Amino acid sequence: MNHQSVSSAHSAPAPIGRYAASGCAFFGALIVEGDLVLADRMRRLLCDLAPGRRVVVASTHAEAIHLLAALPYDLVLVDMHLTDNGGVALLSHLRRAYPQIDAIAMSMSDDGLLVQAAISSGASGYLLTSTDDAELSFLLRSIERGGSPIDARVARRVLGLIAASAKPEGVESALRDGDTVSPPMPAPGLLSPRELNVLRLIAQGWSNRQIAEAICLSINTVEFHAKRIYRKLAVKSRTQAVRQATQYGLLS
Q1: Which of 89, 146, 180, 195 could be disulfide-bonded to 191 (CB atoms 3.0-4.6 Å)?
Q2: Average pLDDT for residues 44-68, to the nearest whole number?
Q3: Among the listed residues 189, 223, 224, the one whose alpha carbon sits nearest the alpha carbon of residue 207
Q4: Which of 68, 187, 182, 65 is nearest to 126 (CA)?
Q5: CA gap 62, 1 in Å, rounded
């Protein structure tokens, strides 16, 4: 296996972004990209973004699976064009086996089917590698603030997919009658299995500490999952999260 690694030679990387806020050490990033030139470009961007961060490069789905089992990571960038549909398969694996990892899809294309496949498979962001370095760095930095890095062209594509599935006549009728308009259904796989488990316990009124003890996680990890749930459901509180999840049918 040929993989590249860049790390601090003398000490563990200092916590940054939300990892510092939660008291967790920052472990590292994995780039899964078959194009070695592009992989080196993304590695350089991540190293410039946070000097001392451990960055490892894998060129295949199989190599990525091996590296994920060997070392802890907080961030994985996944090439959607890996052979044998490996990008989608890897995102699905990350969602099931490593729900705490931020999995970001990468592609040269904003093709609607590819975007939908990435989001449905668990990607929390989507980068277009045709974008210049400055824009990619800006998007990657948003991860540290708890954001989901998504290229503006991809965001437009996602909005188009949502609009295509909506029924304007139903919305207009509801507005005329003074009714509230239900939010669109989220894409399949919006929440990981672990996030759904945490959300259901939140809905039962459990505290973060009670949830942590029940499912054998640290309280920091539970808080991390709760923040991801809020972000994905576009809410700011437990009450709003439960209400939104009920409307989406996530608690049934």
Answers
A1: 195
A2: 90
A3: 223
A4: 187
A5: 10
- Tell me the average pLDDT of the chain: 78
> Rounded distance, CA 188 to CA 123, Å?
11
Query: For the chain, which domains are there?
Result: 4-159 (3.40.50.2300), 182-248 (1.10.10.10)
Containing H/E element for 5? strand 4-6
**Each residue of 202-229: pLDDT tens digit?**
888 888 888 988 888 888 888 888 888 8
Q: What is the pLDDT of residues 130-174, one digit of tens each?
A: 989 999 988 888 776 666 788 888 887 776 666 666 555 554 554
